[in-house]
Automatic annotation (TrEMBL):
The keyword Lipid metabolism belongs to this UniProt entry's keyword annotation: no
UniProt protein name: MORN5 protein
Keyword Transmembrane helix belongs to the record: no
Compartments, record wording: Cell projection, Cilium, Flagellum
Protein's organism: Thryothorus ludovicianus
UniProt GO cellular component terms: motile cilium
Amino acid sequence: RMEGFGCYALPTGTEYRGWLWDGMFHGKGELGLPKGGGFRALWDRGVPAQGKYTFADGLEYEKEKWHYCDGYDRRFYTEICSGFKPPGIPQLTNLDPPQIIPKGCYDCGDGFYNPKTRVVVDYKRKFLRNADDAEHEWILGTCRKAWDITEDKPK
């Protein structure tokens, strides 16, 4: 069994770097996620005893003092860190400037959605998933559309 300090790559692209004992995460270690961010923890026989999750943009999750998007403060994380833009210049996403949405598609947060094919691809155009009926309706009702920006709504 694996023991000592090491690196373990999971089939999902997640990677563990840290201490192992009897084939389990044990001691200080971090799970790095493929798109950034991760979970740094003190592990006890494969179970995190204490730890902290960090999102890809650097935002750290704090269970007890979580103030981001809590219903009272709806600012994006970049607005919290850097302040607001001047009046009249909207910030539509946490990423500024936002991704350019392909014609006829929607920005659904983790990629682009094409309602004709019902496929979600990531921002590098790699397949993520097929949208079910509930996700399809949610995206159409709430997400930014390419024609919101270009003014020309596709037919």
